[in-house]
Amino acid sequence: MRKFDLIVLGGGSGGLAAAQRAAEYGARVALLEPGRLGGTCVNVGCVPKKVMWYAAELAGGFERASDYGFDVRVVGHDWARLKAGRDAYVQRLNGIYQRNLDRKSIATIRSAGRFSGPREIVDANGDAYAAEHVVIATGGYPVVPPLPGADLGITSDGFFELGHRPRRVAIVGSGYVAVELGGVFNALGADTVLFVRGERLLRGFDSLLAEQLAKQMRAAGIEIVTHALPSAVRGAPGDLTLEMPDGRHFSGFETLLWAISRTPRTASLGLERAGVEIDAAAAVVVDAFQNTSAERTYAIGDVTGRALLTPVAIAAGRRLADRVFGGRPERRLSYDLLPTAVFSHPPIGTVGLSEAAARERFAGEPIKVYQTEFVPMYYALGDVKPQTAMKLVTVGADEKIVGCHVIGPGADEMIQGFAVALTMGARKRDFDDTLAIHPTSAEEMVTMR
């Protein structure tokens, strides 16, 4: 049995972060990962998705070019060429991650691991390992619903395997994946239809963002069908029909993409042999310090079912290593204020509470909301006038800002700076006292009244 100070199960963003930070403190670390290093984010998530988003942004730029005097003729788009370049980029990242592990003397075991006992692991070949500490960071996978014909569809994993752009696409879902990939498909020329279970997109986000996004997606040519959760899929690959419980049928789809939820990857870990508790959704139960129910066994990232975001997994992993190996016993990630971007078209940046959540959490306290909508200067010379929208949610007599939300060009980049301000406890008067940078969309955030 090989012995280490730390064993990490999973080579995704969180696992890599925890392993490398622990190694920097001098810990002897082993990392078990059967697939490509980088996990969901690098291989079938945020990194290749952002490449596709850039391609979609270029398509929009070509449409606006004539407004600025350019005579640009786009004769087509080579999806296969884009895929090849994207895949090569991801492969380079896989190599960089491996070299980083080697540089820090982290033992990389290219196998899945499962518990054989408390803090004891066995790999697929039967080799055994033990450590003083174990981190579970195996992530999750996209769900395909249990209904007739569902296997005729693909998930976000399958999106990155597509060798050509489908002619007509159905996307079932209303969250990050649905709106992001829907925007890409549409911008690159696919006839795109979103099927949403309820009334709105992006449940849990501020209503301003959801409403503006739906408005602009529809204006861009995307059909959004509400109250539409399929009960069956009929047909054959390349010609699919979605059947709804109320009798509606939607036909002629070359591709169906499920974007409804993700499941923690815990089923094959043998958690019961380690005394690790999971909840009804198969997520590992953790406390505020990422501790599981088993001694010196921790879980981070999507496997916990909390805030399924790459930066969350990375931050939790690094802080855990700081606490366990860096002599910082109170170090942990706070889940109260998590900035995020949605790479939709247009993009969204948001940090803190929605207006509805703020009114619920701070019931009885004064809530004041500042909001603005305007056409960004980028569209000044054209006939198309999409709006940027912003909202600040404040609490108390001193108007502490507890929510900051923006949708429009540049929202994904500008929110990082405003997240720093909210993390430091900014009040509305702090924004008022900040000099505006003109002409930008971001200046509206500090001039709202």
Notable traits:
single chain; 449 residues; alpha/beta; FAD/NAD(P)-binding domain; Enolase-like, domain 1; 3 domains; seven-stranded mixed sheet; five-stranded antiparallel sheet; 11 helices; globular
Q: Summarize this, please?
A:
By secondary structure, the chain is of the alpha/beta class.
Report on the structure:
This protein is of the alpha/beta class and 449 residues long. The protein has three domains: 2-142 and 263-325, FAD/NAD(P)-binding domain (3-Layer(bba) Sandwich), CATH 3.50.50; 150-260, FAD/NAD(P)-binding domain (3-Layer(bba) Sandwich), CATH 3.50.50; 346-446, FAD/NAD-linked reductase, C-terminal dimerisation domain (Enolase-like, domain 1), CATH 3.30.390. It is built from eleven helices and 21 strands. The chain has helices at 13-24, 39-44, 46-65, 79-103, 156-159, 176-187, 207-219, 310-325, 355-361, 411-423, 428-432, and strands at residues 2-9, 29-32, 107-109, 113-117, 120-123, 128-136, 140-142, 168-172, 191-195, 223-225, 232-236, 239-243, 249-253, 255-258, 262-264, 297-299, 340-342, 348-352, 367-374, 388-395, 400-407. Strands 1, 2, 3, 4, 5, 6 and 16 form a seven-stranded mixed sheet that branches. Helix 7 (207-219) links the parallel strand 9 (191-195) and strand 10 (223-225). It is globular, with a radius of gyration of 23 Å. The mean pLDDT is 97.
